[in-house]
Write a structure and sequence with these properties.
The complex is a heterotrimer of chains A (311), B (329) and C (334). Chain A contains 13 helices and no strands. Chain A is an all-alpha fold. Chain A has a domain of 208 residues: MetI-like (MetI-like fold), CATH 1.10.3720.10. The radius of gyration of chain A is 24 Å and the shape is elongated. The two termini of chain A are 14 Å apart. In chain B, 32% of the residues lie in helices and 23% in strands. In chain B, the strands form two sheets. A seven-stranded mixed beta sheet of chain B has the order 6-7-8-3-9-10-11, with helices on both faces. Chain B has a four-stranded antiparallel beta sheet with strand order 2-1-4-5, with helices on one face. Chain C is mostly helical. Classes of the chains: A mainly alpha (311), B alpha/beta (329), C mainly alpha (334). Chains in contact: A-B, A-C, B-C. Chains A and C meet through helix 1, helix 7, helix 8, helix 11 and helix 12 of A and helix 1, helix 6, helix 7, helix 9 and helix 10 of C. Chain B: It is found in: Cell membrane. Chain B: Belongs to the ABC transporter superfamily. Chain B: It comes from Kineococcus halophytocola. Chain B: It is a peripheral membrane protein.
Chain lengths: 311, 329, 334
Amino acid sequence: MTALDALPPTGPGSPDATGEASGEAGAGPWRSAWRRLRRNPAGIVGAVIVVLFVLVAVFAPLLAPYRPATAEWFGQVTPTSVPGPSAEHPLGLDSFGSDLLTQLLYGARSSLVIGVVSTGVGLAAGALLGILAGGIGGKVDTVVMRVVDVLLSIPSLLLAVSVAAILDRGPLAIMLAVAAAQVPIFARLLRASLLAQRGQDYVVALRSLGLRRRRIVVGHMLPNSLGPVLVQATLTLATAVIEVAALSFLGLGDPNPAVAEWGRMLVTAQARLDQAPMLALYPGLAIAVTALGFTLLGEALREALDPRSSR
Amino acid sequence: MTLLEVEDLRVTFSRKGSPDFTAVDGVSFDVDAGEVVGLVGESGCGKSVTSLAVMGLLPRRSARVSGSVRFDGTDLLRASPAQLARRRGKDLAMVFQDPMTSLNPVLTLGRQLTEVLRTHTDLDRAAAKKEAVELLGRVGIPDPRRRVGEYPHQLSGGMRQRVLIAIALACSPRLIIADEPTTALDVTIQAQVLDVLTGLVRESGTAMVLITHDLGVVAGTCDRVNVLYAGKVVERARREELFARPRHRYTTGLLAAVPRVDAPEGTALQPVPGSVQDRLPWDVGCAFAPRCAVADEACRAGLIGLDAAGGPAAHSARCVHPAELEVAR
Amino acid sequence: MLTLVVRRLGLLVVVLFGLSLLLFAWVRALPGDPARALLGEKATPAGIAAINERYGFDQPVWQQYVTYLGRLLRGDFGASINTGQPVVQTFTERFPATIELALAALLLAIAVGIPLGYLAARRRGGWLDHLVVGGSLLGVVVPVFFLAVILKYVLAIELGWFPTSGRQDARIDATHVTNFYVLDGLLTREWDASWDALVHLVLPALALGSIPLAIIVRITRASVLDVLGDDHVRTAQAKGLPRAIISRRHVLRNALLPVSTTLGLQAGALLSGAVLTETVFSINGIGSYLFDAVTQLDYPVLQGFILFIAVVYALVNLVVDVSYGFIDPRVRVS
């Protein structure tokens, strides 16, 4: 690529000089981003997975053949075998005697709720810190960023464990735990974005017009940071789904072991790995595919919003 | 004796999703041993691509190269990558445009000099190091013994370009291609670096292809000059001849844009109007026609050849209405 | 260079001090009463008072902190409320297992990831490149514990190529000097013990290695692509250097700089992942110790653990930064 990038793009054959750019003239940045997103096959796959996941999570009660975590058919489970697929149970039973398909569908529900809430909380808290640091600057910036540095210096799982330890086991603990690990990410992102804009001409111009700092930050600078935040939030949902599963895998979630949570299902499946490997395979795949969906969508969003970053 | 003979060189870039772009469109020129030949033109005229094609440094995947580049009897375009590598740095060397990025930031200057010596000569480590210090001294770097252990970021741009010149000269090549060697430097040190380069080239009898957009640079250094426009040679002459009797309208335009000490007082500099992008495909007519003040239908009537006018001075131009005829009319 | 080390160590002391204060405040704010938690059902006022006196819970909070800090400075992290074992002793017994696992995973990831990332970049757009990019995406989205379960099922349970759990076969009577079992075997010349520990390490390291592997591959690839476009590589080609030297000295060497900085950032993820991997393969590392401590509110262990991890984390990053200075001359001078 050495010579090609340095030399001929001034010619009529170069993509920068003609066609595409003028074709999109007049469209706002969001609209052209949307257009690029629709042309990205990986992004479409990601979006489809995400939409399916959300639909399954929302309509789990309608889709699922039974109620979750009932252990209704516990009598059919023996120490040496778990009943496999049958007419009544398309995927068979889990090791507590609940319907496996039902457990999986409701698992999407708990993943979505915990993932979205934790990312929302992490985003809100992180964004607030980031806006304080990047918007006000000075001493506030120094103090906030020291706090964020300390948060970052603690491995995220450890942070999660600490929060779970304070709040005792349960979904709330997992939510806050995962959120806590995300705070520094969003704080840094927003701060960097705001700082980068602070020196830009348009901000200087607004300031010279006598606008108040809060108006400039909230009304002008924040909307410009929306894109990167959206990208990060989508990517963070992928890690959130995995971390939620990891924490419930470690037993920090709902104290009820038969609960419909993918991470927990994977734990209980381990004891019967040699008899019924499918019990581990399904929830594991569910986690991976969901994370894949959010990751693909997030990366496609990143490329759509910032075409230069595509590689 | 002809050392380098470039014939009908064509370079076409193809990129996915955009039409092919021919950067060099049938360029021919030659260089005799010990001679300094200029390739002159605006950025985008194909002069740098020509030099990279001669060196075999174009990306193989996206650039298609045809024609022939005969160096000392062998066609470099048909040489294997290994054969090419054996000659590069040894028989033909290159000085690049941007000294800030053309040196490896994480290796010492000494290492970057000795590695070329150790590749192409049988000097041992100590001898190569001694030679490196020697070379740094020759290109005018003060305290070379200390500098040899330093890293590129510790040197100024002018000093780095001197190092690049030292690297190019290390194995006493027969031909050096210098691609805009002073463009990236401060105006005040351009002349110094150019002096070092031409001085050493003349002293060692090395031939040089000097690529530049600056006719002022050409005036002080070149024996012969090729003016390039939109991928083709549009005028070729000995240096004195070109400056005294420019024929192609593009050359006259370039000359009018150069500040001259001998110009009558009050003469305004005349920039060439328009840009290289306003060009006609050569098979339709003169690519320069859209920017040319005297262009007419005759200029848009198909490919124009390089005439052989000028007799023994071999001064040729690719122009329907060359400047001298207008004067005669 | 020295000032960098000194300044960073100074900063570490400040962070540790702040962290110890934070941790102390946090543990005191826990909802559960540790004495009550320890005694459980049998809690009587007299029993609680005895525990409180024994562990100093009845003193003023600030005094508890001063005592605690003094102990920390003497290297005394206290004893586990649960087991009565000194925290430091349990760490030295268990931490080597975790470190051994994390190091094996990291080495594996480096040994595989850097060549793969390099080759993918050199053959950009080829089948290997697509495979590597797709594979690294999978490495990011497949949870470690799921990968560990799959590896355990396929390679250990079904095919029987590797042991399913533990660090060493119980039938091997191995001498343990450092508690790094592979190293112990080498030190004591008990080759079979060392080999057995290594075989036990393969699956956990494969599973855990997937995290750094995916990241190393991606960064190496992107970084090599960047360097390949750099002018100095073209200079090296113009010098007529042999291909191998250009690749090694001018491309790979420069491309590894960004890769090496990210290695430090892997420490946290590796540690978290190690805890998960340990549970799947029943390895007696710090993972199980930590989670017993969490569920039973064993706060001396938690405090010691977090401080310990913070130190390890900071030191790893310091080492990375210092070594970065050695490989990148631009950092060294400025």
